[in-house]
Amino acid sequence: MLRYLFTRALSLGLSLILASVVIFALIEVIPGDPASYMMGLNATEENLAALRAELGLEGSGLDRYLSWVGGMLTGDFGISYTYRVPVADLVVDRIWVSLPLALYALTLSTLIALPIGILAAARRGTWADHGMMGVTQLGIAVPNFWFAMLLVLLFAVSLRWFSAGGFPGWSDPLAAIKALTLPAVALALPQASILARVMRSSLLDTLDHDYIRTARAKGLTRSQVIGRHALRNALIPVLTIIGLQFSFLIAGAIIIENVFFLPGLGRLIFQGITQRDLIVVESVTMLLVFGVILVTFVIDLAYALVDPRLRRK
Question: At what angle do helices 278-306 and 61-73 cross, to 10 degrees?
């Protein structure tokens, strides 16, 4: 087990190093000069040179890469070109929107998907199975930003149950959760469709095994067989999808955060791109990559806990 943990941790570290190189290289090849963008067309060369030195844009690419990585290792993500405050402060402010939104959406997705997948597998071949799988296919086909616009039109514009956007902060938790509800639903519905289909497929595959037929021969009902024997084994691929979905929800909610004007990390990256605030873009992107890789590492550990065969291997 210790060797397994060491191998996965080594893989995580190498992935982070490779990701940092790729992110820095991609930012470097983007055309345009942040200093020229900030100072405008009438800036003199002396002023541009002074601003580049202040922003740390001078020097070789290797020196700037090592300075950037060394700063991140100590918690220093640099100073935002636009906001003139540490990027770490921006991240701390925005993470309390993106992280609760991702957890909220993942919770809704799991609560919706698992019962649908289990019920569809238990009723395989019936009208209920075909109906639920048809609805999930529709959920996969329709993009989440379209769901978001429909939710705004129905619940914000027509019914006026929710606000169309914005975030009031966590000083009033009920108002904050209410503001995150529509974005969370818009994110959760497509993810729930994917998770429900994976749950059904995995459970059907498990129900075809010999030990399931033996349990049925002993007199257990179908619900007892699913609850006591099949469900735990069927959860292994489902854990993979849940981990990937959480990674997507924390890092890929840029469009939804812009639709609902939420001050999250996705919107921060979008603003950094439009304002040529490259230090914000590369630092926040690297932080999100770290979160994705860390979630993958945790899912690998969950595999070892759920499946004893991995521990023996």
Answer: 50
